[in-house]
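Lab notebook, bench 4. Still working through the backlog of constructs that have no structural model yet. Next entry is a single chain of 548 residues. Request: give me the structure tokens for it.
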Amino acid sequence: MIYFIFLFSFQSCYASTQRIGDISTDDSYAGEDFDDRLDVPDDRGRDIPFDDYCEQMVCVDCECLCPDGTTMPWGGCYSVCESIPECPHYCPPGYCPSCTESPGCPTAPADGPVGMPCTSHEDCELGSECFYEDVQYFNSETYVNWPGGYCSLYGSGNEGCDPEIPETCPEGSKCIYLGEYFNREWYGCFDSCSVADEDGIPYDWACGCRRGYQCNINSEICLPGCSNDRECCEFWNDLNQDGLREESEVILFEDCTGWCDNEWNSECKASYSCKYPGNPNAKVGDSCQHDYQCMQSGTCLSSLYTDPITGNPYYPGGYCTIFECTLKGRECSPSGGVCANFSGTNYRNYMCVTPCDVGTSPQTPGYKCRATPLEEAQACFPAWPGMFVEEPPQGEDGFCWFGNFGNGNKEIGESCNDDSECASHLGLGSCFDWFGRIGFCTASCNQKLVNENRICGGIGGDGIAEGVCAWGYCWEGCNNPDSPPGENGCRDNRFACAPLYILGAETFVPEGSTRPLGVCMPPCASDSWCAEYFGSSRRCDTVTRACR
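Model written out:
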């Protein structure tokens, strides 16, 4: 990146033909002559008029080497009456950081064994394992992952930690969900950090992380930071999951002007994250492929992320958002969004979403979500109580998110493997698979959608509702909770008719209808299965296969 310096007076122009930065000899550079190192032009060309001389100044961006071996960016202006001299390799005295490590973070937890550097598993404590430093060379750039190594505890099932129980991770670390692998859910303990001070003002550096690590703004854990500017303008989808960049997996956005903030400033601080000027025209919910296409401080849920098995995008069309929108300077309203709370009990996840009116669809005039093309359309999902941190400007009661606009025809309660199989009124249909057994078709719902749109079904001839809205999802109704699967009235003869009370007190049916006695759901597997999903007092009935 080139910085242009404008010189407004004869004196400043004349002075800049002298030694750049008024550099003088310093003991830290003993053994070398500074004039020789810098090769800065002297007062040659005095016969050139000052105005002409000023027009022949150019600013070049250089990188200089500090005595401690670190590098710093440094720009200097030179005369180009003849050839431009080479950039100096050493920094001016007093320019280099006077400290040797990042300052302590006042709001981060105390350091613990997780996140410590390592070169082998034996270097780590409490049974944690070492993520080894990995250095790759790709397209003439160096990429460093897990710099210096990183001790972490991780596992699946009972061997992993629990995000809802902080004590399952050592002091100074927190538990994060890592995803599903080989049909098992994995969790890991990672070094904790702090994204903002006590006043909610975000730090501009990785507060609480080791050098080379950024503080992830969503999870507040230290993760490997960026390595170079090119990395900030790339999209890498590791399709074969071998951890190696390959030409077919990397897209470089040529018009991206992002850069990697990975050089210590004079206070020994850096964020080790990618920085972007931001697109002033971008709005929350806009289509995108990369962060640089979104608003400043924005993140792109990229349309390029695809399911390695199906090849389908996780975020059709992409979605511009801002995470941690409760922090100062990260507000949603300037970009047309509203801050929403997607948090759990012991983790936080605030992000900007586009507000909308529940019950509308891409066919509704004035639809507030993305409506075209249909494969990238968004549905207006109902917001749950307390979800919006701030009131939407026009009183909207929903938020725009990725909907299901396929041609599925399976009704609520029928078994499924994928969202595309399910009928999807207003784009809200999906395949519910939370129970880890048999998936079934459902739809997102609230009381308004139940009454005005019959999202969970209508009213039967006997006046009993065909479906029930509970937990924000539709459930097929049934009236024989004491009968075994196949005899209880459920569409899928494998399903149990669980008593309605199993879903709690807040259930919605169409006005004027009677609630069914039960709802259809996958058969229970064991007492522990019932306790996990419905409370410690629930048991699996061996006849009805329902939790009671």
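Notes after review: The first strand starts at residue 57 and ends at 65. The CA atoms of residues 289 and 302 lie 4 Å apart. Flag for follow-up if needed.
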